[in-house]
Amino acid sequence: MSSSARGNNISAAEVTHISSHGVWVLVQNEELFMSYEDFPWFKDQPLTSILSVQESANGHLYWPAIDVDLTVDIIRNPERFPLKAK
């Protein structure tokens, strides 16, 4: 008996909470907070757009409905990545 080939990576990332201050996302067994001040792309977005997060690679998150790509490092240290949407 042989093992079958690995399938596509199933997203382990999950949005766990959305508040008036920001979004919490669970990735790699760590819950991270993204304030709207540091991550303005999420403010005023429909709930379904925020909830549909995908982990496309280890530590790389993608929200296809709003076309936002972030790494865990960016979420942990937003001050090191000062670019913001206008």
Structural overview:
This protein has about 90 residues and is mainly beta. The protein has one domain. It is built from two helices and six strands. It has a three-stranded antiparallel sheet. Strand 2 and strand 3 form a beta hairpin. The radius of gyration is 14 Å and the shape is globular. The mean pLDDT is about 85.
What about the largest sheet? Answer: 3 strands, antiparallel
- The helix/strand class is mainly beta
Number of strands: 6
Q: Give the CA-based shape.
A: globular
The order of strands across the largest sheet is 1-2-3
| Low-pLDDT windows of residues | none
Whole-number total of structural domains: 1
SSE succession: EEEHEEEH
Primary descriptors:
single chain; three-stranded antiparallel beta sheet; mainly beta; 86 residues
Please give a quick description of this structure.
This protein is mainly β and 86 residues long.
List the helices and strands and how they pair.
Elements lengths: L13 E5 L3 E6 L2 E6 L11 H5 L2 E4 L2 E4 L4 E4 H5 L10
Antiparallel strand pairs: 1-2, 2-3, 4-5, 5-6
